[in-house]
Amino acid sequence: MGAARRVDSYTARWRKSAHRVRNGLRRSGVDYFRGDGSDWIALAALLLTVPAIAFGTIVLPVWCAPSMLVLPIVAGGLLLRPASLLGLYAAAATALIVESVVLGPYTQGPARVTPGTVLTVAACGFFGLVVAQFRARVGVPWRRGGTMLFDLRERIRVQSALPQLPKGWHREMALRPAGGQSFSGDFVVAARTNGGRTLEVVLTDVSGKGMDAGSRALLLSGAFGGLLGSLPPHDFLPAANGYLLRQNWDEGFATSIHLVLDLETGEYELLSAGHLPALQLHAGSGRWEEKSGEGPLLGVYDGAEFDPGKGVLAPGDVLMLFTDGLVEAPGRDISEGVDRLTGEADRYVSAGFEGAAWHLIEAVAKDVNDDRALLLLCRD
């Protein structure tokens, strides 16, 4: 009995110790990524440059001007926390005072401390403080912020990659964010399921565009990628709708189209959540046909139902999925945009659709201030 109590006591103490260690590691990690870690090395280095610049201004006035104090101030705005930055500003102000006293009012040339010099240094200090406060509010250190954005952009690109298809099939996708930005509200997730026999592709258009919709698109693409292939095809859109409703976003809706394609027979189903119809080119007749299912927007109301539309891709047929940025324009009906898109696509019928997705976006929606995505599936 006593041995059991001792074991329980040791276990409790071990758990408390482990909890403290985990909390300490978590706190230090959070502090690092929030930019709250120690910045004393950068502060010390910048503080040393201030008297060096002041000394150079007095000794070598031709080579070192008082306005050079903006250099450590700008670097401090990028590297230091706001509290440390104020200390650097105090050192720079002291250096200006010392320079003006030592050099005197009769000094001529670039070494003279003029009111313009003081205003220039003060203006740079103000903007540096704004940058430092923004970094502190966002919680991303300057030295890692660019890396994080690059990593997010690459994750979106990787998640939008289409899987390899068996011989006899060709697929390609092109995505162009609004305004030439790196982030888009349009995204694609795809997977081969059913032992590789079935291709499932989901093209989604999140409300908003560009950077405004980029964060929501990244979150949804990760969630949709986890759902795709984990659920039966007819359960995907209801699950995606429920997930979107639980986010409680102010702009919480999205359109989506879900393609389920049998790569052996060419038979497919399209389930749509308020998305534009797909377009199928029939090789026999050379005509384009709209194909779609029926369903409401994602994130509007619970219990939504999505009825599939069915079709078959025969040899030589082409299926095209796209977002509204390719066919919508102010003062123009969507049907006109669809006609223009199919007219441009007809040019690739004889030569093949290799590389056509990007060129189609260039041809019909090059300067449109909206996200544009186009997916092509061809059966040879």
Automatic annotation (TrEMBL):
Superkingdom to which the source organism belongs: Bacteria
InterPro entries xrefs: Bact_Sigma-Reg, PPM-type-like_dom_sf, PPM-type_phosphatase-like_dom
UniProt keyword list: Hydrolase, Membrane, Transmembrane, Transmembrane helix
SMART domains membership: PP2C_SIG
Keyword Transmembrane helix: yes
Annotated Pfam families: SpoIIE
Boundaries of every PPM-type phosphatase domain copy: 170-379
Transmembrane feature ranges: 40-65, 86-107, 113-134
Any one GO MF annotation of this record: phosphatase activity
UniProt-recorded name of the protein: Membrane protein
Organism for this UniProt entry: Streptomyces finlayi
